[in-house]
């Protein structure tokens, strides 16, 4: 079983991924953030580093998908924090549309993405954490990563619009949309319980 958690920056993916992995006793695959050699430079100068960062994330995410495939064939459960789809359909698309990645670089990136995606299996469940801008901003502030301090509201807004468009067209497997605006699964175990119940019901028909 493979559950992938998707959503905008600060939506609460990593926190939930760890909690679900603990609950189901499954392996968790987190994003390559702390050792990412481009992320800080990217936030300082997006046009300069957008292509480098996208190639880095694409490769790291692709490697993850291959590791997940191995675990799946050994019947192990997996929780994944963000997917390769979001890199291309949300982030790279937004950089290109906002003029922060050139047409040439974007085409080159998409060609690479297309070559890789045929080797990627969709998750059994895509869990979309839907959050409005105030919630995202509040949680990005709470996390307090220095390089994220200058993220513009417009950037988050564009990403949220891309998420809405992409999710409304997603048809590669089961999809569960959870509005997290009024959920606090950090401090309220009942809120975590609500999400686990929805997952069980969507995946296994239990309630
Ligand atoms: N539903 C929630 N309620 C309250 N705080 C949350 C919630 N989800 C995440 N947080 C907090 O918000 C911050 C960002 O969460 P994180 O899981 O890192 O988001 P993401 O991985 O989506 O970027 C963390 O400090 C986390 O503890
Ligand atoms: N593909 C990506 N392009 C640009 N930035 C990305 C991409 N994937 C992740 N990020 C950034 C967004 C955040 O600053 C960090 C970690 O993501 P988070 O949603 O906080 O887990 O990496």
UniProtKB/TrEMBL annotation:
Domain Deoxynucleoside kinase, chain residue ranges per copy: 3-201
UniProt superkingdom: Bacteria
Pfam family, one: dNK
Positions contributing to substrate binding: 31, 43, 54, 82, 87, 148
Keywords assigned: ATP-binding, Kinase, Nucleotide-binding, Transferase
Gene Ontology CC: one annotated term: cytoplasm
GO terms of molecular function: ATP binding; deoxynucleoside kinase activity
Sites where the protein binds ATP: 7-15
UniProt-annotated catalytic positions: 81
Family, as annotated: Belongs to the DCK/DGK family.
Protein name as annotated: Deoxynucleoside kinase
Organism field: Hymenobacter persicinus
């Amino acid at each position: 079983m493979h559950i992938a958690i998707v959503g905008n920056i600060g939506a609460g993916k990593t926190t939930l991924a760890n909690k679900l992995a603990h609950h189901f006793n499954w392996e968790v695959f987190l994003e390559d953030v702390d050792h990412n050699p481009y992320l800080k430079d990217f936030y300082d100068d997006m046009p300069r580093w957008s292509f480098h960062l996208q190639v880095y994330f694409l490769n790291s995410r692709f490697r993850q998908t291959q590791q997940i495939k191995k675990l799946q064939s050994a019947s192990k459960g997996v929780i994944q924090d963000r997917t390769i789809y979001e890199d291309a359909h949300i982030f790279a698309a937004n950089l290109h549309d906002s003029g922060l990645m050139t047409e040439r670089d974007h085409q080159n990136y998409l060609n690479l993405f297309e070559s890789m995606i045929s080797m990627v299996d969709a998750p059994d469940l895509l869990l979309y954490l839907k959050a409005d801008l105030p919630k995202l901003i509040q949680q990005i502030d709470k996390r307090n990563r220095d390089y994220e301090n200058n993220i513009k509201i417009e950037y988050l807004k564009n990403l949220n619009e891309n998420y809405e468009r992409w999710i409304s067209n997603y048809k590669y497997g089961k999809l569960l949309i959870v509005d997290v605006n009024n959920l606090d699964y950090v401090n309220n175990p009942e809120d975590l319980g609500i999400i686990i119940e929805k997952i069980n019901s969507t995946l296994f028909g239990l309630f």
